[in-house]
Amino acid sequence: SALLPLSRAARRLDRWGPKAPTLTILSPLAHAMPRGSKLDDKRRRHDAAYLRAKRENYAARAIYKLEEIDQRFRLVKVGARVMDLGCWPGSWLQYVSGKVGPEGQVVGVDLKQVDLALPSHVTALVGDVDKLRPGAFARRYGAFDLVLSDMAPHTTGDRASDQHGSEELFL
Questions:
Q1: What's the Rg (C-alpha) of the chain?
Q2: Most distant CA pair in the chain: distance in Å?
Q3: Is 125 helix (H, G, I), strand (E, B) or coil?
Q4: Helix segments in the chain, DSSP class H
Q5: Each residue of 22-62: pLDDT tens digit?
Q6: What is the arrangement of strands in the sheet containing 146-149, beginning at the earlier edge strand?
Q7: Which of 119, 107, 113 is nearest to 148 (CA)?
Q8: Fewer CB within a 10 Å sphere, N or C end of the chain?
């Protein structure tokens, strides 16, 4: 790679040795440099699991996390009644609906609407999990054999608030 000539200021700083103040040199090529976040570049964001999920018509790559857990612990059974809390975008609903079959029932709840064509034994509800009334929910849908959740709280950037939100999911 070719070295860019040092500016006059950089040459002066070089004379300071190890006690030189910090200097950020911006070059005309800075716009071509990759950004720090993987989310800035779709090519970097779309890894092998993402591409596999899209190829296999799943809503998200999280399907493979649930599949691995289910293979290890055999949680999802044919004919089971399963609740999925925080079900958007719907890949877990897709996986579970196939495992329980039409004899089972799957109910998902999330703040966002799941925009997938789901089988008739699957219900995706829009709502806040924290505001569910368990008694009314149980009367409407009955008891569940398995409750799944891959929820995460909305983050603010404030460490204390975000930690509190994460802890609230377990209560």
A1: 25
A2: 78
A3: strand
A4: 8-16, 42-45, 48-55, 63-73, 91-100, 134-141, 159-168
A5: 444 444 444 444 555 555 666 666 889 999 999 999 999 99
A6: 122-126, 105-110, 81-85, 146-149
A7: 107
A8: N
CA distance 148 to 96: 10
Structure-block tokens of residue 78? 């044919």
Q: What is the pTM of this model?
A: 0.72
CB 55 within 8 A of CB 80: no
61 φψ region: left (φ > 0), alpha (ψ -120 to 50), beta (else): alpha
* Token pair recorded at residue 49: 């699991």
For residue 136, with 0-12 CB atoms within 10 Å meaning exposed, 13-18 middle and 19 or more buried, which class applies? exposed
Contact 97, 63 (CB under 8 A): no
Residue bearing tokens 């975000």: 162
- Nearest Cα residue to 130 out of 170, 89, 88: 170
CA dist 26 and 129 (Å) reads: 48
Closest CA to 95 of 112, 118, 73, 127: 118
